[in-house]
Design a protein that fits this description.
By secondary structure, the protein is mainly α. It has 3 helices and no strands. It starts with 9 loop residues before the first helix and ends in a 13-residue tail after the last helix.
Amino acid sequence: MILAEPDITFAQRISRYPSLKNRIELLMDILEDCAGDCQKANEAELRVIEELRQMGSEALRCWAEHQIERASEDFSTARSAAAKRGKKNSGGIPPSER
């Protein structure tokens, strides 16, 4: 499980999610107008909104993958714990006489 530990920098955390890192870099390019195609505020706004939508989609995909990973680990742990228990020694409760 990945937790936000105080010793881990943002760069280390974002490196775990290359697709989100790319989205953030694209957003920064818009802010810095690297392409030189945002002459008006509404053009920049539309590009930022689209980039944020895509970033949200990427974030949810990463979240879903993390949830699947976590569920798989939980299942494996439970499965190995069940295997360690082994066969029951009890034959059950004998039938009572009437």
